[in-house]
Write a structure and sequence with these properties.
12 helices
Length: 271
């Protein structure tokens, strides 16, 4: 009697974004997941090797480990934006600046009203620009609005175009919960054949998203990022790009402008 065929159960690799948890006990399923991610990473590193971006030593060191290490250092989560509960007033008692709590409410309400928007989604200049008009209507003209807006990706940026496709939207939601994931993704586009690599990762869905999480949220990923930073066209791979990608990042930048405006108000009223 012939042996019955055995069915191999392949575990899911959806362990990123808001569901990503470091230092989780290693199970058979988790080990299989890491093997899958490890295979994809080695494939990408071999492509980079062919372009001369990373050294053969780096590839060998990675391959010798067989799987991605489970020892990870969680990226420092962005601290919540502190809000001033009361409007800032001049010494003569006249209300001159709305409270930052009102600023935050206005900003989040604007984005929540956009069709299909979810917190953590990548923003564009066209989506952010109306925020300054809304704040000006409420009494605060952001003096460095142009500088802030220039830090936001444009609608024509490569990562915006890629993440606005159906596949890209799913990919974006996978990585949006990982701090600095957008920074790593954009840094990757500047590597030789980087745009092709990013497009490949997006096409791989959750497995591709795991690679970005690996670079952004693990010790081994940081080591590989340092290796990439030594190569042509990949300087500062592990560092933030300085761009504003999300509503939370925009609020943090606005808070800096708000503090400057409040300080100027105090100095002006005291003169």
């Amino acid at each position: 009697m012939p042996n019955s065929p055995q069915t191999t159960l392949r575990p899911s690799v959806r362990t990123v974004g808001a569901r990503y948890r470091p230092n989780r006990p290693t199970s058979a399923g988790t080990a299989a997941n890491r093997m899958s991610i490890g295979y994809l990473m080695k494939h990408i590193l071999i492509q980079l090797l062919l372009t001369g971006l990373v050294t053969l030593t780096a590839i060998c060191c990675f391959a010798a480990s067989e799987v991605i290490s489970g020892s990870e250092t969680p990226a420092s989560a962005d601290q919540p934006v502190q809000t001033a509960a009361q409007p800032v007033t001049s010494k003569d008692g006249a209300t001159a600046l709305l409270s930052f709590a009102e600023v935050k409410k206005t900003v989040l309400k604007h984005f929540a009203g956009m069709r299909g928007y979810e917190p953590g989604d990548l923003l564009t200049q066209g989506e952010v620009a109306p925020v300054f008009q809304l704040l000006a209507h409420q009494g605060w003209t952001v003096t460095d609005a142009k500088e802030i807006l220039e830090s936001v990706p444009t609608e024509s940026d490569f990562i915006v175009q890629q993440l606005r496709t159906p596949e890209g939207l799913k990919f974006m939601r996978e990585i949006s919960g990982t701090p600095h994931a957008y920074d790593r993704l954009e840094r990757m586009t500047h590597l030789p054949r980087g745009k092709q690599t990013v497009a490949t990762l997006i096409g791989r869905g959750p497995k591709g998203a795991d690679v970005i999480t690996y670079f952004a949220d693990t010790k081994d990923g940081a080591k590989m990022g340092r290796q990439l930073s030594k190569s042509r066209g990949a300087a500062d791979f592990n560092k933030p790009t300085g761009r504003i990608y999300t509503a939370d990042m925009l609020l943090k930048r606005l808070q800096k402008s708000y503090k400057q405006a409040a300080k100027a108000l105090e100095v002006g009223s005291g003169s």
